[in-house]
Amino acid sequence: MADAQPAAGGRRTLRAAQALLVLSAAGLWAASRLTWVDLTTFDGLGPRKVVTLSGSGWSAALLPLALLLLATALAALAVRGWALRVLAVLVALASLATGYLAIGTLETRDVAVRGADLARVPVAELVGSTRHYPGPVTTLVVAVGILIAAALLMRAASSAGATATKYLAPAARRSAARHDDAAPSERTMWDELDEGRDPTDPADDPAPDADTEGR
Question: Strand, helix or coil at 42?
C-alpha cells in the first residue's frame, strides 16, 4: 500500500500538469481574441477611422503556442521517464516565449508604429493609438501557468522513476546503485541487512553473475 502512494502521487501530478496546460491553451486563445491595440487614422478626406488589432493580429505566435500546449498535454499521456523530462523542458521554453511576448508588449513605449505596420496603415495617417492591457496581462499570467506545468511534468517524471526503482528486485537495485556510482539508498541498505550483509562493507557485495556480465 505504501509503494502505491508515490505512483498515485505521480499520476496526480501528471494530471494536474495536463489540466494546467489545457487551461493555459484556453488562456492564450482568449488573449488572441482580446483587443490589444486601437489605431485612430485620418486621411484628410473622410471621417476618422479606428483600426483594431486583436492578440492574434498583434502576434501570430499566440495561437500556435496554444496548439503546442494542447499537443503537449496529449503527449504527456504517452511518454515517461527521460522523454517526459524533455517534454517538460520544451514546455518551459514555451513559457519563456510566452512571457517574452507579453512583457515585450507591455514594455513597448509606443505601439503606434508597429501597429501601423501590422495593420498596413500609413504612419502619416496616424493620429492616435490606444494600448489595451487585458490581453498582454492574460498572456503573462498564462506564461506563469505554463512554467508551473513544466515543473509539475518534471516532478511527475522523477516520481515515476523513483516508483519504478522501488519495484526492482533487491539485486537489481544494488546493481543500479553500483552503476550510478551514488550512495546506496535507504531501501537498498535495508535489502542488504535483510540478506545478512553489511551495506557499508564493500567486501560483502555479491560477485556479479557470470551470465549477466557476459551479456
Answer: coil
**Cell 546503485 -> residue:** 177
CA angle 97, 129, 125 (to 5 degrees): 120
Q: What is the pLDDT of residues 112-151, one digit of tens each?
A: 889 988 988 888 888 888 999 999 999 999 999 999 999 9
Nearest alpha-carbon partner for 28 in 102, 132, 91? 102
Are residues 57 and 159 located together in one domain of the fold? Answer: yes
Q: Note the pLDDT tens digit of each residue in 171-186.
A: 555 555 555 455 555 6
Closest CA to 114 of 39, 199, 193, 192: 39
127 and 73 in a single domain? The answer is yes
In this structure, are 124 and 95 located in the same domain? Answer: yes
pTM exceeds 0.85: no
169 within 8 A of 125, measured Cβ to Cβ: no
Q: Are 111 and 37 in contact (CB under 8 A)?
A: yes
| Distances 16 to 22, 29, 75, 144 between C-alpha atoms, Å | 10, 20, 14, 15
Report the C-alpha gap between 215 and 211 in whole angstroms: 6
d(CA 22, CA 80): 19
Distance of alpha carbon 158 from alpha carbon 152, whole angstroms: 10
Q: Which of 91, 100, 45, 48 is nearest to 69 (CA)?
A: 91
Q: Residue 65's domain spans which residues?
A: 4-163
Dist CA 146 CA 142 (whole Å): 6
